[in-house]
Amino acid sequence: MVLDNIGRDRWLVWSGAAGIAILLAGLALPLTDGDSAFYATVARDALKSGEWIALYTPGGGVFDKPPLTIWLLGLSMAAFGATDWAVRIWHIVLALSTVYVTYLLARLALSVRQSLGVALVLLTSGQFFYQSLAPQQDIPLTLFVTLAMYWYLRWEQEGHVRTAAMAGISSALAVLSKGLIGVVLPVLIVTVHLVLDRPKWPRAWPRHMAAAVFAFLIVAAPWFVAVCRNVLSERLPGDRTVLSPRAL
Question: Tens place of pLDDT for every residue, the chain, 248 residues?
């Protein structure tokens, strides 16, 4: 049935394929975004020093953002070298994953054709194209917040503790991507949903919510604890400034 629907809407499939091809073609473009080059430099320095907990800027200051983007940049550069292509490839994979998760999220309420249309709108938007080629925190944040909402709605429909835990893990990865906004956004969205739609939660929701919070803390908390202990317990040399917990 799904294949029949796709067959009747080949223009959607071909448009999506063209959008993906154009996005992948962007790998060959030079890296001109200053912030992306800065993050790549932080990742390169982490590769050289082997320090992946307390990250430092080229000027010696403490890098005041969560580490997931730098970790992924570092892994990509370790695998493919310090090239523009290596700086971008992991980020484009996350961007395409965002398009796919958007499709899955739409499928919870819409038809295959409508869901493909939703994913295509995202894939072909100018801002999304630009952000996909500029490795920063925005695409990872978007991916993991979208995943958190997908798993939350799956939990609402199915009532499984596993889906609740996956929502917590997704929110934790969003926090490790760009900070507390990664959990604030899902909470605000769910709150509005509860007020407007008044869905019926599964009977075991207290236990499931506890599982979600536990999963969130298991993934998100260790780095924050480690970096606070690392930075606040040591006197940093030179012009390095101590990172306040509020900046996290």
Answer: 444 554 556 777 777 787 788 787 777 777 777 788 888 888 888 888 888 888 887 776 667 789 999 999 999 999 888 888 888 889 999 999 999 999 999 999 999 889 988 998 999 888 998 898 888 899 999 999 999 999 999 999 999 999 999 999 999 999 999 999 999 999 999 999 999 999 999 889 999 999 999 999 999 999 999 888 876 666 444 444 433 333 33
| Cα–Cα dist 157/60, whole Å | 49
C-beta atoms surrounding 18 within 10 Å: 13
Domain ranges of the chain: 1-136, 140-235
What is the pTM for the complete model shown?
0.85
Amino acid identity of 62? V
Amino acid at 202: P
Side-chain half-sphere exposure of 130, counting CA atoms within 13 A: 5
Q: Closest by alpha carbon to 199, among 156, 163, 165?
A: 156
Strands (DSSP E) along the chain, which ranges? none
Q: How many Å separate Cα 241 from the centre of its chain?
A: 28
Contact 199, 190 (CB under 8 A): no
> CB–CB of 197/189 below 8 Å?
no
Q: Which helix (H) or strand (E) holds 225?
A: helix 205-232
